[in-house]
């Protein structure tokens, strides 16, 4: 008779794999890119030297490989902060220590162009999931080493980019100042874009604040680079594979930079 291994309801692991991600510690590298769309995982990994698919369960698709000899993984997180929170939880439990969200975004500042990148230094927590973890006053801040590596990568690859604060909402429409169905538009959302513009916010998307909050609570590093596919000033919208490739390339290159720095630090015994 096969012996049944009991599964803990508070931390479910099935045959050595995390319940949602279907991955175990041997399936991922400690450096993980986290796009939302599972389809983008293959596109990002095609920029690497080699990769293997490790799991594809619900919205979570994971591949692991090498980029310029740097071990690297990419796991899709689905749309929104609740799904992102599960990815960060389970990736951290199996050994991830550095995360970079690679996403698409809506730019809200004049002067931004379609296809430009936004590198986030922090995020306005307009999401609900991060409030399940910590008080709303707690800041969602990127790790400085990841921000530096992303800026260096974008500069070396000569890809146009903006650096600053992102706003992460739970919804694509009213939460980002777009009218809902049948022109439903609560007064609290009608001035959202201009309020955020005045506050110097660069862009809207849906996952960065949750990633930054959880990563810093868990003492891990996180950053984000998103490509502008919606321009909320000129009212343009465009899906373009070449533009999306830019974000994947900059994020992979930043991981290479961080890995080189980490390797150098561990050889001289520094942990700063
Ligand atoms: N993703 C978002 O969340 N908002 C946009 O405007 C574009 C992509």
Structure description:
There is one protein chain. It is built from seven helices and 13 strands. With 272 residues, the protein is α/β, with parallel strands linked by helices. The protein has one domain: Nucleoside phosphorylase domain (Rossmann fold). The strands form two sheets. Strands 7-11-10-8-12 form a five-stranded mixed barrel. The protein has a two-stranded antiparallel sheet with strand order 1-2. Helix 3 (144-156) packs across helix 7. Uracil (URA) is lined by residues 104-106, 172, 176, 204-206, 229-230.
Helices, strands, pairings?
Elements: E1 13-14, E2 17-18, E3 31-33, H1 38-45, E4 50-57, E5 60-67, E6 70-75, H2 81-93, E7 98-107, E8 117-126, E9 140-141, H3 144-156, E10 161-169, H4 187-190, H5 192-198, E11 203-205, H6 208-217, E12 221-231, E13 236-237, H7 241-268
Parallel strand pairs: 3-6, 3-7, 7-12, 8-10, 10-11
Antiparallel strand pairs: 1-2, 4-5, 5-6, 7-11, 8-9, 8-12, 12-13
Helix pairs in contact: 2-6, 3-7
Bound molecules: uracil (URA).
Brief overview, please?
The chain has 272 residues and is of the alpha/beta class. It is 31% helix and 28% strand. The protein starts with 12 loop residues before the first strand and ends with a helix.
Bound molecules: uracil
Percent range for helical residues?
A: 25-40%
Query: Residue-averaged pLDDT, rounded?
Result: 96
Number of helices: 7
CATH architecture annotation name: 3-Layer(aba) Sandwich
Radius of gyration: 19 Å
Indicate the low-confidence ranges by residue numbers.
none
C-alpha termini separation: 52 Å
CATH names the topology as Rossmann fold
Domain count: 1
Helix and strand run: EEEHEEEHEEEHEHHEHEEH
| Name of the top-level CATH class | Alpha Beta
Query: How are the strands of the biggest sheet laid out side by side?
Result: 7-11-10-8-12
Structural class: alpha/beta
Q: Report strand %.
A: 25-35%
Task: Please count the beta strands (DSSP E, at least 2 residues each).
Answer: 13
CATH superfamily, please? Nucleoside phosphorylase domain
